[in-house]
Design the sequence.
């Protein structure tokens, strides 16, 4: 098992390096530092001196890959200082002068405060609805549930957000329409985003889990369990749910690291100071240092999620350890 995990870690490094190189090409080759300066300055008539000053203040005046005039031609380049240092999680200073690493540490907690309850409650609700549909399969209840799930899937997430804010916050005045606070006071600001996240995910989530459970229903071990006299409820929870854990883990474990990044739309609409709104604000301000750092961080977390998935497979299915 240790060798299996080591192999998966070794596979991750070339992938992460490829993502880093691609990001560098997009930010510094396709979109040159001169282009960044002109977009950031936002003026109609920009002198070359203004562009050069902007680049020098932010370290964009160095050569891209090789600096012949420097004592160390590799480290005194944009690629090393803006891309390679990301592997040490040294995000540096944003184009607006803020410490990106400090901002990330502060904003990750609001993102997790929204994402973790949404994931846990949504997982319980989706699996419960899916098990109910499988338990009452080939009935009007299952048909009605499928139609409802398709309807929920067809509605944009923006509709849930705007509708929830209008009904629950503006008309009923049960919770604030937006904002955030620390400590126990954060609950009233998080309740509505979590409810909306769970409701908007029921359609796709319940249908996906239903498909997983239906694949297990007609297998030999299920027929054997029924032949032993187990009820349909016992078969569902003791056998089908347990044997469907691998695909469930695939969906859950990959998402876990991405919860750190927050939700772009939810945090923006509810004014939650998380990493999602942080990224949106950086895009609007054309702060390329922040956008570049968040792209790299998202890549690292996604690859880490894939590694967690592979490791979880070895815990659930011993056959994977032999591959």
Sequence:
């Amino acid at each position: 098992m240790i060798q299996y995990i080591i192999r998966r870690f070794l596979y991750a490094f070339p992938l992460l390096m490829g993502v880093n190189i691609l990001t560098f090409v997009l930010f510094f080759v396709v979109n040159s530092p001169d282009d960044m300066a002109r977009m950031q300055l936002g003026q109609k008539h920009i002198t070359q001196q203004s562009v050069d000053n902007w680049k020098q203040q932010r370290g964009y005046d160095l050569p891209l890959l090789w600096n012949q005039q420097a004592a160390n031609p590799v480290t005194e380049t944009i690629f090393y200082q803006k891309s390679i240092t990301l592997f040490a999680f040294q995000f540096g200073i944003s184009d607006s002068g803020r410490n990106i690493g400090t901002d990330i540490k502060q904003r990750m907690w609001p993102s997790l405060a929204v994402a973790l309850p949404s994931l846990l409650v949504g997982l319980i609700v989706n699996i419960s609805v899916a098990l109910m549909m499988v338990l009452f399969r080939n009935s009007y209840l299952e048909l009605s549930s499928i139609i409802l799930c398709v309807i929920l899937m067809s509605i944009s997430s923006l509709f849930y957000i705007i509708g929830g804010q209008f009904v629950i916050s503006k008309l009923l005045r049960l919770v604030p329409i937006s904002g955030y606070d620390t400590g126990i006071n954060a609950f009233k600001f998080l309740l509505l985003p979590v409810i909306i996240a769970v409701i908007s995910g029921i359609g796709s989530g319940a249908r996906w889990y239903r498909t997983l459970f239906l694949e297990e229903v007609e297998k030999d071990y299920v027929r054997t369990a029924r032949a032993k006299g187990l009820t349909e409820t016992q078969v569902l929870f003791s056998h089908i749910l347990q044997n469907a854990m691998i695909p469930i883990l695939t969906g859950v474990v990959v998402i876990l690291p991405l919860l750190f990044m927050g939700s772009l739309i939810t945090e923006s609409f509810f004014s939650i100071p998380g990493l999602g709104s942080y990224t949106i604000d950086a895009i609007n301000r054309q702060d390329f240092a922040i956008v570049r750092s968040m792209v790299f961080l998202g890549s690292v977390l996604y690859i880490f999620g894939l590694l967690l998935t592979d490791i979880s497979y070895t815990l659930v299915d011993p056959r994977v350890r032999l591959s």
